[in-house]
Amino acid sequence: MHLLPDDVLRHLPRRSLAASRCVCQSWRVIIDDRSLLATAALLPCTLRGIFVQIGVPTLSGFFARPSPAGTRRPPIPGFLDLDYLDTNEIEKSLLTIVDHCNGLILLDHHVVNPATRQWTRLPPYPPESPGSDIILDGYHALVFDPAMSPHYQVFLMPYVLRRATVSGQWPPSPLLLHVFSSRTEPEGSTWRWEERSFVREGNATMGTIDEVCSSSGWEPFDTYSVYFRGSLYVHCQNNCVIRITIANHRYRIIKLPGDFVGNQNISVDPYLGKSQEGVYYALVIGLCRLQIWFLKEYQSSYSSYSNSYCGGINGDGGGMETTTMDHEHEWVLKHDADLGPVLAAGYTLNDGGQQWIWHNIDTKKKNKESLVKEEEFEWNDSDDENGSAGEDRQYKGYISQVFGFHPFKEIVFLYDTDTRVVAYHYNRSKVQDLGVLQVRERVSRSFSYTPCWMPDLPGMHN
Q1: Residue 109 in contact with residue 98, Cβ under 8 Å?
Q2: Is residue 99 classed as helix, strand or coil in its secondary structure?
Q3: Residue 142: CATH number of its domain
Q4: pLDDT tens string 95-143
Q5: Residue 202's domain spans which residues?
Q6: CB proximity list for 156: less than 8 A, separation 6 or greater
Q7: Residue 297, CA atoms < 13 Å, CB-side half-sphere
Q8: Are 218 and 130 members of one domain?
Q9: Is 186 helix (H, G, I), strand (E, B) or coil?
Q10: Same domain, 94 and 154
Q11: At the top level of its lineage, which domain of life is listed (predicted)?
């Protein structure tokens, strides 16, 4: 396989070449080592900032470091004004961020690439049945991995209303979901939703309909989803995650660690996200006790994620053979600490140009960004002690929000006392200050943004 001549692969289109990386490890090594895929630099491989949704509905903002001097790329992603979308002023004022996945942003009715200012309008949502106890589009989840395919999907996950009168276990098997895929050919000029069926693996469910409806203390529309290695993980009702394996049309229910629903000491929404090794879950107990859990999964039979995914993003497997996977899983507690002493001791301050900046429409109109050197924004990964000793200081603040995980490092972003955003290096128990973020309304959602610079994704408009 390593003897495959370069000129055979060089004649392939870029998208076909990207798909060829999925065939096997040997092909991926050849393509990467010989720099055959010129679009590698366009993939989402760097953290640019954090999208923050303030209230519902309202236009969001972007919390990020200023752009380095001499950069050719725009200092702020093309999301703040959205003048390029096919929306009127009323629709524009109601736009909210629903999800983010590998550089694409999911809005209520659009999929947007802020880096390239390209977008797709989603088709009208499927109608609800009159008097139904199930909301078909209770949760919206975005699926996109440009390293494997240029196509993207949106999943509508059902939500059981509290007034439900139906009985039985939830969710049922098979579970019918509505999915939008950029791979699906539009009818005429109109995109459409398609219905897919997923069979449950294992015996676990979210509970009976009554149990799901009676779970309290949590607003289900402020949840998150994760797409990782061909599977979609969605935080759903009754403190559960539903994991959908797209290629083989199966799903599994995974109970989240800790008792968020019944624990009265938890006042901050938990955060399900993706980081260095896969799926992570952050939970804040009391004022400043932080738990970070990692989902460790096992496979009873060998299966190639690349083979099952490549060409199979629409769920048909692309004609390639897939192996049914029987996963077992466990939540591993990676970190459990009271951050009061750490925050009381102080943290590394990003003075001057190192401060991250809050960008929204108002600040975009009023302020001009400072241009500084790239190296001033590298993460502080030294072994030097951060901040002052401060052992006798008492921390009087609290963690008011989990803003998300760094996608490539053991870092979680926290909102400290509704004032400052900090990066907590939990493997070293050290805190780095990113800057001030003071907003009047409640923060409802936040997403670590990794820009994707690949142009002309299927179905995207300028």
Answers
A1: no
A2: strand
A3: 2.120.10
A4: 788 999 999 999 988 999 998 889 999 999 888 776 667 777 678 999 9
A5: 41-66+73-297+326-365+392-447
A6: 125, 126, 136, 137, 138, 139, 140, 177, 178, 179, 193
A7: 19
A8: yes
A9: coil
A10: yes
A11: Eukaryota
Strand, coil or helix: 266 = coil
On whether both 16 and 60 belong to a single domain, the answer is no
DSSP 3-state of 431: strand
Q: Which two tokens stand for residue 114?
A: 């802020």
**Residue 307 placed within a domain:** no
Q: Does residue 320 belong to any structural domain of this protein?
A: no
Question: Is residue 310 in a domain?
Answer: no
CA angle 328, 331, 334 (to 5 degrees): 140
**Cα dihedral angle (406, 407, 410, 411), rounded to 10 degrees?**
10
CA dihedral over 156, 162, 163, 164, signed as positive or negative: positive
**Which residues are registered as beta bridge partners of 271?**
282
Residues 98 and 13 grouped into a single domain = no
Span 348-379, pLDDT tens digits:
665 444 578 887 766 655 554 443 443 334 44
| CB-count exposure of residue 195 (10 Å: 0-12, 13-18, 19+) | exposed
Do 28 and 57 lie in one domain? The reply is no
Does residue 84 belong to any structural domain of this protein?
A: yes
- Yes or no: say if 62 and 76 are a contact pair by the CB < 8 Å rule: yes
154 pLDDT more than 90 = yes
Integer-rounded Cα radius of gyration of the chain:
22
The C-alpha angle with vertex 92 and arms to 90 and 235, in degrees rounded to 5, equals 115
Residue 15 has a CB neighbour count (10 Å cut-off) of 17
Same domain as 103, residue 14: no
